[in-house]
Backbone:
């Protein structure tokens, strides 16, 4: 009771004190809520529906295609820092040149690609392999598979597709040089490899 | 130090009211890029807010020991509240992330030094609060009992 009486006596100071306290309480709860959203964004943003194919054209070239969806159900827009697609075949029989690239693409931050909040963006890529040197390597693999009894074709060779992307959430600051954890908390990093799937 | 029931109530009320600024500052020091509004790790601003948070404990407590106890109590409660803020997403999404090692690595290592600023600022605020209260009392006494004119 004495406390209430004292509060009534100093009503102006008590009101100021309550406002000061409430301001920081609201700021704290809001910030914790932002923190929950940021962490949940890292869990919610996904790469889905990856599809890829290889088609042999009449002139002997091979067309490699790849597409994948980036699903962003979070409340933040995703500003893409880098998007990388790479397609290749590995030739386990050769020491040097075991890696045969058949397609690649890179999109950097200056392209200003943005995946809006609650949206899904499809990334589609296509590459035409017509270089005789690469085709010779692929045909070499096809011929070798025939010797091994596998009978692969240019369309059924085990092409590996890798997709890697880094994005920043919303407009949060992310250029800290010393405190790297602050950059990490607002970063979304996703990767897909068809090798892990097949 | 004698602590009566009314004193304990007063200390508790001040502790609960002054804890939110401490909690916010500790959390903001950890994540200045996602908090609103952010102090951007400006130590002087943090000291100033600590002083402000300490003023009521001096203003409402005439006893210095109780005022100092209030400062220590609200700093402790505020820091616990900051740990709660920090834990929220991990309790919701991945309970395994709440490990003592993880807390030490990320939270306590960054914010432990803040406690000294909060307590120091709190004591400074307490002194200021008591000065304000005393001068106001003097002024009120003067108004109630004006000096006789010769």
Residues:
């Amino acid at each position: 009771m004495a406390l209430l009486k004292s509060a009534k006596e100093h009503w102006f100071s008590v009101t100021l004190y309550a406002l000061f306290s409430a301001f920081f309480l609201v700021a704290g709860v809001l910030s914790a809520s932002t923190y929950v959203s940021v962490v949940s964004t890292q869990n919610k943003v996904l790469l889905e529906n990856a599809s890829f194919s290889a088609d042999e054209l009449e002139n002997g070239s091979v067309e490699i295609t790849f597409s994948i969806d980036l699903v962003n159900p979070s409340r933040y827009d995703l500003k893409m820092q880098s998007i990388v697609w790479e397609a290749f075949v590995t030739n386990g029989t050769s020491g040097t040149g075991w890696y045969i690239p058949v397609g690649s693409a890179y999109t950097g931050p200056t392209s200003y690609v943005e995946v809006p909040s609650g949206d899904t963006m499809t990334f589609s890529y296509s590459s035409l392999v017509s270089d005789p040197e690469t085709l010779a390597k692929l045909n070499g693999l096809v011929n070798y598979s025939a010797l091994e009894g596998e009978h692969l074709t240019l369309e059924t060779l085990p092409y590996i597709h890798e997709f890697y992307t880094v994005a920043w959430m919303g407009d949060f600051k992310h250029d800290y040089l010393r405190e790297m954890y602050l950059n990490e908390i607002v970063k979304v990093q996703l990767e897909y490899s068809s090798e892990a799937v097949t | 130090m004698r602590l009566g029931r009314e004193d304990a109530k007063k200390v508790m009320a001040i502790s609960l009211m002054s804890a939110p600024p401490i909690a916010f500052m500790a959390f903001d020091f950890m994540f200045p890029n996602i908090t609103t509004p952010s102090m951007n790790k400006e130590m002087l601003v943090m000291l100033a807010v600590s002083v402000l948070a300490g003023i009521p404990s001096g203003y409402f407590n005439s006893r210095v020991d109780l005022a100092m106890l209030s400062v220590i109590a609200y700093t402790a409660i505020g820091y616990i509240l900051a740990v709660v803020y920090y834990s929220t997403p991990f309790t919701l999404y991945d309970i395994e992330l709440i490990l003592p090692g993880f807390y030490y690595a990320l939270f306590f290592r960054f914010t432990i030094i803040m406690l000294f600023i909060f307590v120091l600022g709190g004591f400074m605020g307490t002194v200021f609060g008591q000065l304000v209260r005393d001068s106001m009392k003097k002024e009120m006494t003067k108004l109630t009992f004006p000096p006789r004119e010769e």
Summary: The interface with chain B takes residues 2-3, 6, 10, 13, 17-18, 20-22, 24-25, 27-28, 30-32, 34-36, 38-40, 43, 172-174, 176, 181-182, 185-186 of chain A (CB under 8 Å). Residues 1-44 of chain A form one domain. The two ends of chain A are 73 Å apart (CA to CA).
